[in-house]
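Pasting two entries for a bug report.
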Amino acid sequence: MASRCVSRFTPTDLIVTLFVASVVASAMLLPAIARLGSSDGRLRCAANLRQIGQGIQMYMNENKGAFPRARFDGAGGEPTEFTGWDAASPFDASGPGPNDVTAAMFLLLRTQDLTSEVFVCPFSQAERWDFAGKAVQDVSNFPGPQYLSYSLCNPYASPPAAAAGFTLDDAAARSFPPQFAVAADINPGPPDVLTASPNSPRGTMRLANSRNHDGDGQNVLHADGHVEYHTTPFCGMTRTGSPPYRDNVYTFGAGYADAPGIGVRGSPADGLDSVLLPTGLAGPLPPLEGPLASVEPSTWIMIGLLAAILLCVSATLVLALRRNRGVSRSPNS
């Protein structure tokens, strides 16, 4: 009598196969999910800067074309930040000090129906400020970088800079080419931003980029209102040189690297010079990303889906082989 022994694909086999498939698929998809989350954060950051740009435009419309500016010493001295925050007026002597760039930005909160959350990049260390429990009209500035993760073009230009064409006011400013940088993710500050050149390697450039996005780049609000993500701070106006290069928006002066006179905190040099301040909390950067970090999220998703399909096919083949091999016939008795 012939006997047949069939080795079946048991529920345990199925559970193990599905578990392995889920682990492998998750491992393949996690990088894509992380990068998609990063992309979403950049979009929210860009939306914040667009709102800041709209606030600047409305402020200028309501103030005869004047760019937001608090007390000015008239000489374009060294810019300040985070001074006199608890004063009731940003223009009184008891309020923010002269040339305070953050006080200029805070005017948008006092006048343009923006919330303090708009001034916080989702990927920065900053947090939304509650105005120390007061009404926004009772304070005049951000108290520190823990509540601000964007930088504004220094509006306190020296007379020589004005004579060289720098202005943020009236129709002339509004006709600036789109390259001119008005605001951006917060300036990383010295010394690293001073050592980069337009052709610096990636590791050096990361240190010169804003810390908001782990040194990968920064969102920049340009003069025409559009926001663009740049992987280098050399994203301002085009300057002549050999070869021509774009202005470093985090420094002042017409040069870069070891050019004379360049710095981070100072007046713009001329009409092409964006100087975005204040500087932020320059913490350590994460390790440089590996070669797979440049793979697009859609590519990772496709890889994950293909891996899941291959696992399903493999499971089907295993089932078929076990069935075929499990069928045996004993000799006739």
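Entry 2 (this is the one that rendered wrong in the viewer):
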Amino acid sequence: MFIIIGLVCVLILPSNFSTAAMLFGICVMLLFVGRASFRQLTGLCAITLMAGAILVGGLYGLQKAGVNNVVTQRAETWVNRVDRFFGDNPEDNSLTENYQAFHAKIAVGTGGLFWGKGPGNSVQRNFLPHPYSDFIFAIILEEYGVLGGIIVLFLYLNLLYRSILIVRKCDKTFPAFLVMGLSLSVVFQAFINMAVAVGLMPVTGQPLPLISMGGTSILFTGAALGVILSVSREVRRQEELQNRKTVERKSVETEPETEKEEIEN
């Protein structure tokens, strides 16, 4: 399983590091839920992280040595983002060094605790690049306050909770893991976007599912929710069938007793 997961993540890695890392984390969680050996998972994750660090470090070294191509440029971008996020240099928060995170913090700070500036009254949307996708949560906090952000967070948690209820009712393994994996992919992507907007993670470029403007993002999110709803409908149909069989069995069991009582009377 790790070989297959690794091949898929390596193919995604050059163009989108955050998506590859998110997919790898979700796969590891599914393996853990599927009762894979915790010792093996820990060892393989450690080896994968070490290999990834060596790979990124090597590509970054090649970039500094003068090897300039798409892959080395991406490695330099990853290293710079992490360095700006964890760096102690006061210039890291300047407009030139971290423009997006700087204006996102302004949006979050000026939004207030409860009502914010009101719908459509955001100021930082005029300065943030892609305020309708990557940093839409910062705009939500600015316009609706922390209360509005908590409501959005609760909606995603409710989606995860409802998916867990569907998983618990599944009597087969495949649909249960299918629902769990798809729901985790949607909710994790939302958490990453929120964490970036409030400054808890380096800038990744992950959109906020069902809220950010996008074409392929909303298409695949809708497909994932459609699969989850399909499994939910099948689970409900199985429950109704099982309840009908239970009622019929009880009625068959009570009929002989009723006939015996009538004969005795």
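Dev reply: Rendering is fixed now. As a check, the viewer should reflect this: Residues 89-94 have pLDDT under 50 and may be disordered.
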